[in-house]
Every structure is written in structure tokens, then in C-alpha cells.
Amino acid sequence: MYEQDSFFTLSAPHQFGLLCLSAVFATGMVAAAWQLKRWPRVVAVPLAVVLVWVFTWISPQGYYQYYRSIIDGLPAQWVVGAPPGLGTLWALLSFRGPDTLSAHSLGVMGWIVIIVATIRHRTR
Asked: Considering the chain, what is the average pLDDT of its residues?
């Protein structure tokens, strides 16, 4: 399924770097979702969805900066376009978007963020 994914065109060290960058981004998203736990679920879930939506929209710039650091000649430019529509976000969360590691990773991370935002600690 992922044979043609651009991830596999990178060398092993560059793949590792991309995985590390993704881990940093994911950690930041989970930390932000953790902060949403203080809100009622009726507020936390929509805010978590907005958080995923904003990440889906803005994160390509961070990844592009990483690619600029490993690929000579990539110009400094803004690669973020218009915000994705709700249909695009739903396609990612339902795993019906593109068959790419990036799309599927966004879907997994999106669900993790939503779940983390809804988990409540039990009180005794």
C-alpha cells in the first residue's frame, strides 16, 4: 500500500529524522489535548477536532522546513494553502483519504487527540 510513498525515497537517517519530527509534533498535540481535559466533554471534543484541523492545515510547513534541511535547493517558501474542508478532515479521520503514511498518520493522531481530550480521571 505504501510502496510509492515519498517516505521511502529518503535515506534511513533522513527517515529517522522525519520520524523524530513527527514524534515531536505528536507529543505537542497530545500535550495540547491533555489541557482540554479540564473542559466539559461537550466543549473538549469540538476543541480537539479544531486542534486536529489546525494541525492538518499548518503542519505541512514544519515538514517542508525539515525537507529543506535535507534536500539542497528547495526554496524558502510558504507551502500552507487554504484550510482543509470538513470533508477532508473527515476523510483523514475515517481513513478514506489518500493511501499515504502521512494521511493515515494524521488519522491515527487525530483520534488519539480526540480520545485524550475526553478521558477523565476517576475520583474516589
From this structure: 93
